[in-house]
Amino acid sequence: MDSIHIQGGIALQGQVRIQGSKNAALPVLAATLLTMERSYIRNCPRIADVHAMVSLLRSLGCLVTWCGDGLQVDSSQVSRGAMQGEAVKGMRSSLCLLGALLGRCGEAVLEHPGGCVIGERPIDLHLWALEQMGVVFSEENGMIQGTTRGLHGARIVLPIPSVGATENIILAGTMAEGDTRIEGAAKEPEITALCRYLQGCGAVMEGVGTDRLLIHGGNKLYGTEFAVPSDRIVAGTYLMACIGTGGSVLLEKAPADEMEAVLDTASRMGASFWVSEEGIYVQASGHPRAVERLVTLPYPGFPTDLQSAALAVLAAAEGRSIVEERIFENRFRVAVELNRMGACIEQVNAHMAVARGIGQLRGARVEARELRGGAALVIAGLMAQGETVVTGCPYIYRGYENICRDFRELGARIASV
């Protein structure tokens, strides 16, 4: 199913359950390589990226089966560290297997990872950090090979709070001899989820949830059961859709404690919300309001993964909004497609765009070019008058279990074709 057809102009109403987190599930699945036993990962989202990760784990020798709402992973037979195949090319998160394979097998071979084209996203920082721990890297014919005679602890000061690099250091550090200190670590909730899983397996860490992590390596790890937290980005996507359509929605199991910056922005856009044990109840009416300036930042700031969704809403807001992207330099590709729908978005440079709200978007045929931009186009279609056709939907399915089903449950007229 390559396209999504939407008849817009309907205010969303009702409740929808938020799926498990993509960005937490993938590194946790990678971490199952570090045990010689079975782990059960509950609340695992059935999305394209997870299916690709399952294929990679199986190719390495893991026995992986879907059980109920999660995955059972038995990595006891893993003995090689070579990764190849289309899954690696299409999913950047395969890079988080690097630290796990080096810790488990002492070697890792992979192709240059792919994923969404939203910026340079160099992997040099990952390789540099692992080199501090005793890994030697070489590259030949597009393949990266890392080998080590034994991982050892190190003090690693990250120049930027890279989520992927932090994850790889944690995975390698858990198996290394001695202590690994990470200064300037990323603090995203997905990092915390990875640490909690590893602690459940027997790893010893200090400073979880802060930018200074201390990992006491070399402990034997055991299998465990772990529940993937709800996806804050999916919750934020549906929240933005509610604001854009002027709806009233309960986001079941939404992780409100991880969404402070998002909820603050929602208030600035004119929405009201209430947090309870059930989740987040969002109410919006009329046109959304413009925001003077919206800036993406590392957690706990406003997430870059929701910048495109916010931009779609601001395209129809009352007033002028400045959106500043400080994480990636190619996040504004969606602006071209939104302008096809009548938006007035000017990209000032690689890191800034100005949206002059037009009040009402109109349906059009548009193309998703990456995951979060594709979700933003779905939001725009829900807001627009007339029919919108979004193509390039395999990007969207990388991160959303069933975005059409979820919006239909909220009253939208939307279908995959």
Keywords:
single chain; UDP-n-acetylglucosamine1-carboxyvinyl-transferase, Chain; 2 domains; 4-stranded mixed sheet; 14 helices; 23 strands
Describe this protein's structure.
- The structure is a single chain.
- The chain has 2 domains: 204 residues, Enolpyruvate transferase domain (UDP-n-acetylglucosamine1-carboxyvinyl-transferase, Chain); 206 residues, UDP-n-acetylglucosamine1-carboxyvinyl-transferase, Chain.
- It is elongated, with a radius of gyration of 21 Å.
- Strand 19 and strand 20 form a beta hairpin.
- Helix 1 runs parallel beside helix 7.
- It is built from 14 helices and 23 strands.
- It is α+β, with helices and mostly antiparallel strands.
CATH homologous superfamily identity of the largest domain: Enolpyruvate transferase domain
Instruction: Give the name of the CATH architecture of the largest domain.
Output: Alpha-beta prism
Number of domains: 2
Main sheet: strand order: 21-22-1-23
Q: What summary fits the major beta sheet?
A: 4 strands, mixed
**Form type:** elongated
Radius of gyration: 21 Å
- Strand fraction: 15-25%
> What's the total number of strands?
23
CATH topology of the largest domain: UDP-n-acetylglucosamine1-carboxyvinyl-transferase, Chain
Percent helix: 25-40%
Low-confidence stretches: none
| Total of DSSP H or I helical runs spanning 4+ residues | 14
Distance between the first and last residues' Cα: 5 Å
Secondary structure category: alpha+beta
The first-level CATH class of the largest domain is given as Alpha Beta
Question: What is the mean pLDDT?
Answer: 93
